[in-house]
Backbone:
């Protein structure tokens, strides 16, 4: 606004020497709006329309018991709409076998969700070798979990890498359990 006022004083004859706030009010009355250089970016809120539609899953490795330094992994699945914990189990390692067991128990207990929302871990993302993704049309290039979910008709949604806020609901549950 300061720059705009200086330009107006210099270029327009008989332009009144007024405060910046008065200038802003005049522009608003005349329906002249200035676009700000900084545009706020709002993250799109991600939420299922109904209970049971989308399940969020993740793993957290932590020393869950005070004064015992051995770390365990917690495999956790929550309903995206209600945030109800559908599955939680402590395991020794974050392995493919433990995830397959967890998915099997989840589906047998609650049925098929429409989609499962995971992070970009290699267990639930497409194979990347030497910095390049392989042809995703070939079923042999997909890891076991995406291939299995595809066969069951469940959509796999991966969050953006290194952006935990995209999976804030399940990450919040981990914080609750850690406390």
Residues:
């Amino acid at each position: 606004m300061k720059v705009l006022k200086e330009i107006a004083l210099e270029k327009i004859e008989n332009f009144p020497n007024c405060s910046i706030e008065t200038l802003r009010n005049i522009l608003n009355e005349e329906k002249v709006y200035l676009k700000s250089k900084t545009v706020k970016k709002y993250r799109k809120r991600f939420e299922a329309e109904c209970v049971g539609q989308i399940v969020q899953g993740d793993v957290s490795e932590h020393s869950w018991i005070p004064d015992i330094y051995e770390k365990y992994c917690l495999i956790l699945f929550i309903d995206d709409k209600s945030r109800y914990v559908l599955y939680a189990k402590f395991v020794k390692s974050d392995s493919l076998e433990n995830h397959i067991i967890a998915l099997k128990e989840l589906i047998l207990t609650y049925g098929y969700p429409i989609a499962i929302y995971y992070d970009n871990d290699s267990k639930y993302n497409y194979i990347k070798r030497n910095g390049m993704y392989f042809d995703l049309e070939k079923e042999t290039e997909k890891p076991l979990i995406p291939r299995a979910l595809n066969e069951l008709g469940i959509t796999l949604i991966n969050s953006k890498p290194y952006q935990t806020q995209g999976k804030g609901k399940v990450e919040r549950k981990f914080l609750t359990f850690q406390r």
Q: What stands out?
A: Residues 1-40 form one domain.
